[in-house]
Each structure stands twice: as C-alpha cells, then as structure tokens.
Amino acid sequence: MDAVQVGDKNDVGVKIILPSTIYGSPRFCSEAFQDAMAIVRHLGKPDIFITFTCNPKWLEITAGLNPEQQACDRPDLSCRIFKLKFDTLTDDLLKLDIPGRVKAHTATMQFQKRGLLHVHILLIMDAECKPKTTEMIDNNVSEEIPDRDTNPKLYELITTQNIHGPC
Questions:
Q1: Angle at the Cα of 141 from the Cα atoms of 137 and 146, rounded to 5 degrees
Q2: N or C: which end of the chain has fewer CB within 10 A?
Q3: pTM of the model
C-alpha cells in the first residue's frame, strides 16, 4: 500500500534489504565479521597483519595505459593486475609457507580514495611459527634503506616505492 495514502509521508518508497550474498552489503559485512571472530575464538588472535596495496606504477599497469591515462582511469586493468599479484602473494604465504606455516587467515579487500585496491590480511600462525619474542619479530621486520652502492636496484625500489611524502 502506498505510504502517502496511509498518511505516513516519512515512509515513502520501497524498503529493500540486501542479502549477505551481495558483496559489500551490511549483511555481507556483518557475516564476514562474524566469520573472522569465530576463527579468532577458535584458533587465537592473529600473529601477522599485512597490507598489500595496488601500485599504479607497476609495469603491467603502465604498459596498458594510453599516454593521457592514469591507473585510476582503467579500473579493469588495475584490478586485474592487482588480483594476479594478490593471488601470487597468497600462494607465497599459504602454499610456500614464506612466513612459516599458516594455520588460518582472513582478508578484506577495499578500494582507496584514488580508486585503487588494497587488501588487509590477517595470519594466524602454527604454534611452532608464532613470533614469541621481540627479537623474532625484529628478524622478520625491517625498515632499513639499502646501501645505494652495494644494492642499487633494491635501493631504487625502496626509495621510489616504499617512502611516502607527508599526507
């Protein structure tokens, strides 16, 4: 029945409740959160937090752009390249056990304001691979700029890709 005919002018329109099968809907997000919390309750808190961000300067992206285009102008291209690189990272983490054996993981993928994808990954490590001391963490986390003369390629990568200016 029409809301105006009933007399409730504040209730105009049709209410639609999106199911959890619609990616990004409130019910989807709630279900994903509940799933992640169930994993944490069962297996413990995450040990490693990784953020993986799409780089608009990746060669695979820049090679597919016209001279006047930017990566955010081609979401089809940047999303496809990001997904391929994300799948490679996931294989390295979960199949090759790069950080150690992973017992469980969860991830959330989202777009940044510039329109580029990034993903947050939480890893719950097997008991033998959990970092237990600050020394264990320090052995795996580094914030050094490589020596320009000894390793010029790595120096170039770090100084052009990992150092951000002020926001």
A1: 145
A2: C
A3: 0.76
Is position 60 within any domain?
yes
Structure confidence by residue, pLDDT tens digits, 29-47? 999 999 999 999 999 999 9
**Domain tally, the chain:** 1
Task: Kindly list the distances between the CA atom of residue 153 and the CA atoms of 58, 70, 140, 147, 161, in Å, as whole numbers in the listed order.
Answer: 15, 25, 21, 10, 12
Per this entry, what is the length of the chain? 167
Share of the chain above pLDDT 90, in %: 58
Residue 109 lies in a domain: yes
Q: What range does the domain containing 90 cover?
A: 22-131
Residue 50, in any domain of the structure: yes
Q: Is residue 95 situated within a structural domain?
A: yes
Give the separation between CA 111 and CA 117, rounded to whole angstroms.
Answer: 4
Of residues 23 and 103, more confidence is placed in 103
Residue 140: its H or E element: helix 134-140
Q: What is the mean pLDDT of the chain?
A: 88
